[in-house]
């Protein structure tokens, strides 16, 4: 429940090949520290990455826990995708609303985010494919900062488990 299915440095590492392999036809994307940093800056290449996926036919919906509609809306506008703000992850309700927008079945949706306790747990509870990405910056909101050491421990165990499995 706590482990992601994949773990990448950046959303840009999520390839069409990977999505095809797992029959993923739509993405639910987190915003803070997944698409933009705390200063609301989007790293280079992210909008091209999203455009490339969309051109290929992958549907995208933003699901952010932020209550700042201007911030979430601005990111959605850059990527030209629908969005939900104040999403209350890891509760299922936001994910189900995003699913309605994507018009896809849960098993064809991947959830992408930088936090285990919101993005990954929520995705796993909904039986959606969970993809954890490294936060864009170490800088975090206070509440997130408290959770980070626990997340780091889980990621460490996750990678250890993965290595063990690949040795078998
Ligand atoms: Mg985030």
Q: Topology, please?
A:
Layout: E1 6-8, H1 16-21, E2 26-29, H2 46-56, E3 59-63, H3 69-79, E4 83-84, H4 92-102, E5 109-113, H5 116-125, E6 129-133, H6 142-167
Parallel strand pairs: 1-6, 2-3, 2-5, 3-4, 5-6
Bound molecules: magnesium ion.
Question: Can you describe what's shown?
Answer:
By secondary structure, this protein is α/β, with parallel strands linked by helices. The protein has one domain (6-167): HAD superfamily/HAD-like (Rossmann fold). It is built from six helices and six strands; from the N terminus they run βαβαβαβαβαβα. The protein has a six-stranded parallel beta sheet with strand order 1-6-5-2-3-4, sandwiched between helices. α3 links the parallel β3 and β4. The mean pLDDT is 95. Bound molecules: magnesium ion (MG). Magnesium ion binds at residues 30, 32-34, 113-115.
């Amino acid at each position: 429940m706590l482990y992601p299915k994949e773990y990448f440095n950046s959303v840009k590492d999520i390839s069409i090949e990977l999505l095809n392999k797992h029959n993923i036809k739509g993405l639910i994307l987190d915003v803070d520290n997944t698409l933009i940093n705390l200063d609301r800056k989007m790293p280079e290449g992210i909008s091209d990455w999203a455009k490339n996926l969309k051109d290929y036919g992958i549907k995208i919906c933003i699901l952010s826990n932020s209550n700042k509609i201007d911030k979430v809306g601005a990111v959605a506008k850059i990527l030209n995708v629908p969005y939900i703000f104040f999403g209350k992850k890891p509760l299922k309700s936001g994910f189900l609303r995003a699913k309605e927008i994507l018009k896809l079945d849960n098993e064809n949706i991947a959830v992408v985010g930088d936090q285990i306790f919101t993005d990954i747990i929520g995705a796993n509870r909904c039986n959606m494919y969970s993809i954890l990405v490294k936060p864009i910056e170490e800088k975090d909101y206070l509440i997130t900062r408290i959770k980070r050491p626990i997340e780091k421990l889980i990621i460490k165990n996750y990678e250890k488990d993965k290595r063990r499995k690949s040795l078998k």
